[in-house]
Amino acid sequence: MQAQIISIRLRAVSAIFAAALFVTNAWAADHETVLHNFGNGNDGASGTSLIIDAAGNLYGVTPNGGIYQCGIGGCGTVFQLSRMAGGGWTETVLHNFGNGTDGNGPNGLIMDAAGNLYGLTESGGLYGRGIAYELSPSEGGGWTETVLYNFSAGGGYGNGNYSLFMDAAGNLYGTMLGGGAYGEGMVFELSPSEGGAWTETVLHSFGNGSDGQAPESGVVMDAAGNLYGTTYQGGTSGCGIVYELSPSESGGWTETVVHNFNGTDGRAIWAGLILDAPGNLYGAAYQGGIYCPPFGCGTAFELSPSEGGGWTMTVLHNFGNGNDGTGPLASLTLDRAGNLYGTANGGGTNGYGDVFELSPEHGGGWVETVLYSFDRNDNGGYIPFGSVVMDRTGDLYGTTGFGGLYGAGIAFELTPASIRFGSCCAPTK
């Protein structure tokens, strides 16, 4: 499967392998801070997307590194980054994967209201197909891992750069890159039972006819309980789809193809979707668009529900024009003012990716601002794989796959100059 091969290839590259940054508007290069350099000793390598708790602590995973070996590199870690009283940040490795029948190759995290962490691994476990796990903080310190579910060949395997989704009842939803009834991936639900076990239910199997194939991203849920996601390929043009899964009163779930990508609006979608309050969907395509033929450098897009039914696709930005970034891999982030933030895997001023902002204009349309362009020719990081997360003051946090003092990537913070200097014009977040 093409998508699975690419996913494995990215992990392998990450196992082998801050930033001097280009800035516009209210952001300044000297306001980038390297929070942590990955790859020192038994530390993890090549971080993905971060999440943030109410206290401002950051959590994430590294698909490689750690104390246990899996193939050409480590099996991966879960880590926490916390501010120190005297300034700076300290990293704590919460879990090392790969011990016994534990999973390996983690991707993405979520946190529940009690502070427990949940995620998936790409492989490992009892059947070698990956696991769903929970990490719970202990009263005396430390964290305890619980394997919630071991995936098997019939229950899906492999996953991309994404996280689980948890509903109000504590059920978990996710996707698998392979498996399912047609072998092209699936959407699943994991439900807890009173005895402590978790039950998997396959909600949809991809690959039937002109359906999508190979979901590289997870799902999001709206207020009505409908799930939305993307696939890397498949659909009427083979470029991937956006889909909706709706629960029926009699049980089961019904898929509706919300959009078939055609190449000019995007193709090869790795990133997941985000929802705003009115129910609009936002996402990014790794390829497609009007620049960089024949495959394209990617797009950012919006899907808006129509009153009479159906959805309207709007391309917000075509990547790859001039010093713009190329190939966005990760989901976008939405702030309270309706601005979107993300990372591009390549391009930028120096060719090693960037962090960008997309802002709606009053007269219609969207304008892109490149906040930072990564550069490999210093001790900073470069080539980001994950999305960025924003704190309450407007600072952005993320990771890179490569670079830093040890070559295994960094965790970074980007601070707007207007906020750092206490400007009267600093945005309200």
Lateral strand order in the biggest sheet: 1-38-36-35
Low-pLDDT runs: 1-25, 418-429
Do you know the CATH architecture? 6 Propeller
Q: Tell me the β content.
A: 35-45%
Question: Care to describe what's here?
Answer:
The chain is mainly beta. It has a single domain (2-17, 19-420), classed as Neuraminidase. The protein is 4% helix and 43% strand. It contains 2 helices and 38 strands. The strands form 12 sheets. A 4-stranded antiparallel sheet has the order 1-38-36-35. A 4-stranded antiparallel sheet has the order 3-4-8-9, with no helix packed on it. Strand 22 and strand 23 form a beta hairpin. The longest helix has 15 residues, at 2-16.
How is this fold's topology laid out?
Layout: H1 2-16, E1 27-37, E2 44-45, E3 51-52, E4 58-62, E5 64-65, E6 69-70, E7 73-74, E8 77-83, E9 89-96, E10 103-111, E11 117-124, E12 131-137, E13 143-150, E14 165-166, E15 172-176, E16 186-192, E17 198-205, E18 212-213, E19 220-221, E20 227-230, E21 233-234, E22 241-247, E23 253-260, E24 274-275, E25 281-285, E26 299-305, E27 311-318, E28 325-326, E29 333-334, E30 340-344, E31 346-347, E32 354-360, E33 366-373, E34 381-382, E35 389-390, E36 396-399, E37 402-403, E38 410-416, H2 417-420
Antiparallel strand pairs: 1-38, 2-5, 3-4, 4-8, 6-7, 8-9, 10-11, 11-12, 12-13, 14-15, 15-16, 16-17, 18-21, 19-20, 20-22, 22-23, 24-25, 25-26, 26-27, 28-31, 29-30, 30-32, 32-33, 34-37, 35-36, 36-38
